UniProtKB/TrEMBL annotation:
This is Porin. It is a multi-pass membrane protein. It is found in: Cell outer membrane. Pfam families: Porin_2 (PF02530). It comes from Mesorhizobium cantuariense.
């Protein structure tokens, strides 16, 4: 073997060893691309896909701060005792609220699967001078957490915690803060509902409801069903470019009474929208008092005084930022409520509203506190300033 052969053999051996070691080397995998949140525009703005699913989620809510003063009966002011001498004072009513909302949506072979939840946290002082008993305890503090909505809907079928279709389907009253100076029906309830939309402006709802409230103390009403028979609400609506006509009828299974409302909405111009609601209900068997010593005559649905009531009002948009809202309500018991406000969008998502409210408690009696609107006197006036950041 000559030197040349030895060198060539050594080189071949080195190459073979190097190749074997290279085959055994650890290969570093390329990093997988990050799965960023994807926008879901199927159900409107603000939705995004939950990573790894076909479910779209939206998270929102608002932070609100109310400053109000005036008479208790307009639900604005509060009363308290002077710390030094114990005398009765009028005082501000303050209320802060944080509301968290969630929406989900997903397309399935049986239709759109949706959920909605709304939870509220509140901190403020009391103004319940007349209910359930006369008191001027103006303690400020947390007033608990409330689950206002938690429902599931597949296609037209909805189940869960909602507000009564007696209000949601026909629509709440005006764009004022105190729209229940003359009440138009109770709200919280568990439901089994079916919504029908014909696609030509005609829609309908059938709702089986549990109601809310209860007990035998005689102060808060017995709205929760007292057997296996539910409350029943049905409604129809016709919507067109000029506005809408809506009607709802409710059967109170506790008292076997019926109440109904009819509503007309008119878009008079691009700046002016108007509405009027008429309500009528039977009350032969109704005995629920609203507050202590009240004469009764109300149920879960027919909460106005007497058989009939009317609510009317509208909105005028001065411009894209500013609107004027007003509402007048009146019932057979001569309860009169007037509310008006100016709402101003400081920046998108932040609105300041200044409102004035007036309430005349028609069946007020100073001697026995027989008022059913939380008034401590017959004629009441107050005002409120609201700051709200919605997101």
């Amino acid at each position: 073997m000559n030197i040349k052969s030895l060198l060539l053999g050594s080189a071949a051996a080195l190459i073979a060893v190097s190749g074997a070691r290279a085959a055994d080397a650890v290969v570093v995998a390329e990093p997988e691309p990050a799965e960023y949140v994807k926008i879901c525009d199927v159900y409107g703005a603000g939705y995004f896909y939950i990573p790894g699913t076909e479910t779209c989620l939206r998270i929102g809510g608002y932070v609100r701060y109310d400053i109000s003063g005036g008479d208790v009966g307009s639900f604005d002011g509060a009363k308290t005792l002077d710390v030094k001498d114990g005398s009765e004072n009028d005082t501000w009513r303050k209320k802060a609220r944080f509301t968290l909302k969630t929406w989900t949506g997903q397309e399935t072979e049986l239709g759109t699967l949706k959920t909605y939840t709304e939870t509220r946290w509140n901190f403020g002082n009391r103004n319940d001078y007349a209910a359930p008993l006369p008191t001027i305890d103006n303690t400020a503090g947390n007033s608990g957490v409330s689950l206002n909505f938690a429902w599931i809907q597949l296609g037209g079928l909805r189940v869960g915690k909602d507000e009564s279709a007696f209000n949601t389907f026909i629509g709440y009253a005006g764009n004022v803060i105190q729209d229940t100076l003359v009440p138009y029906g109770d709200f919280d309830t568990n439901v089994i509902q079916y919504y029908f939309d014909a696609g030509n402006g005609f829609s309908a709802v059938l709702s089986l409801e549990e109601g809310a409230g209860g007990g035998t103390d005689g102060f808060y009403g017995k709205g929760t069903i007292d057997s296996y028979v539910p409350h029943v609400v049905g409604g129809v609506k016709w919507t067109q470019g000029w506005g809408a006509i809506t009607g709802v009828v409710a059967y109170d299974s506790n008292y076997e009474e019926v109440a109904g409302k009819v509503r007309l909405d008119v878009n008079a111009t691009d700046q002016i929208s108007l509405f009027i609601i008429g309500g009528y209900g039977s009350d032969d068997n109704l005995s629920d008092p609203t507050y202590a010593f009240d004469a009764g005559g109300r149920g879960f649905y027919k909460q106005w005084g007497g058989n009939w009531a009317v609510w009317g009002g509208g909105t005028y948009k001065f411009n894209e930022k500013t609107s004027f809202n007003a509402q007048i309500s009146y019932d057979e018991w001569k309860n009169l409520g007037i509310a008006a406000n100016i709402a101003y969008d400081v920046v998108p998502g932040f609105t300041v509203t200044a409102e004035v409210d007036y309430l005349n408690a028609g069946k007020f009696d100073d001697a026995d506190f027989s008022n059913w609107t939380n008034a401590d006197k017959k004629s009441n006036i107050g005002g409120m300033l609201r700051f709200q950041r919605s997101f």
